[in-house]
């Protein structure tokens, strides 16, 4: 069974499908100007909402479509206020038909519009995966560059809490393995604002993987981040915390866990460098390998399944490019290789925890207590 959802509003906006011919030229990312740091906090929800608002205001070709994005103002209130501001021609409520509205979005992108397609959860994107991959990702290549597909597929990805196996899967490695797609996964409010703006402005299809549990989290943002021209480059990771003893890579919610683990490790004399990947495809191999060549150790963290995962790709990249710098085996922390349990106690065991990261980093630094000695 799909999922219960409130009755969708009728799809409106016949004017939307005509191609808007005038062009708005804007930079793909901001030249990082120096602003005074502002002591302002913003939730990830607000960051996504303001990014959508500013991009829709700046470019009339940008429009939003999905289930409950209009009258209900978004299942997670990401699109709050947008229907009132931009009207039903540019904020379209759709029926519960992921394959249908994803296909309509791709067709609109073929003709020069810039759709932002919201999935209520990326688990439902499996209904639309044919259009995401066969219709969107492959079109530019198969048309010898004649067809551009400037579309963004966005929504919550991965595990929430108590929603069972069919609503808890991480699709980073799924979509990250597909040529023609760009795959982004923000952690902070800065990530959410800067990466969503970059995704909307990009001429290629972008899969934008948010996290439901991060929507209400607040992060400090600078005046630069709040500027309407702010945009982050796609394919560039961020070093969230510098260190010299071990490199920890993570994305989305796991970045926060990695930072907490780094704090615990610091109390025990281990200096951990935490890398927020931000971009799954393209992957910032240069930043990762540069860090490993400094720390000589690597721990990867992700919520997704371990087999064929993002961490597996990172480990392979480091072994290929920086094997001679490693002083310990690489460590992978991932979700359990099982469908997500529903029971809360089992769910916690299936998802990486801070203590798992701490133990892995200690093993990499040869600081863990051998089992025989602990007996």
Automatic annotation (TrEMBL):
EC number from the UniProt entry: 1.2.4.1
Domain called Transketolase-like pyrimidine-binding: residue spans: 42-217
Superkingdom of origin: Eukaryota
Alphabetical list of SUPFAM superfamilies matching this protein: Thiamin diphosphate-binding fold (THDP-binding), TK C-terminal domain-like
Chemical reaction(s) catalysed: N(6)-[(R)-lipoyl]-L-lysyl-[protein] + pyruvate + H(+) = N(6)-[(R)-S(8)-acetyldihydrolipoyl]-L-lysyl-[protein] + CO2
One annotated GO biological process: pyruvate decarboxylation to acetyl-CoA
Principal localisation: mitochondrion
Matching InterPro entries: PDHB_mito-type, THDP-binding, Transketo_C/PFOR_II, Transketolase-like_Pyr-bd, Transketolase_C
Pfam families, per the entry: Transket_pyr, Transketolase_C
Subunit (UniProt): Tetramer of 2 alpha and 2 beta subunits.
Protein's recorded name: Pyruvate dehydrogenase E1 component subunit beta
Organism: Canavalia gladiata (Sword bean)
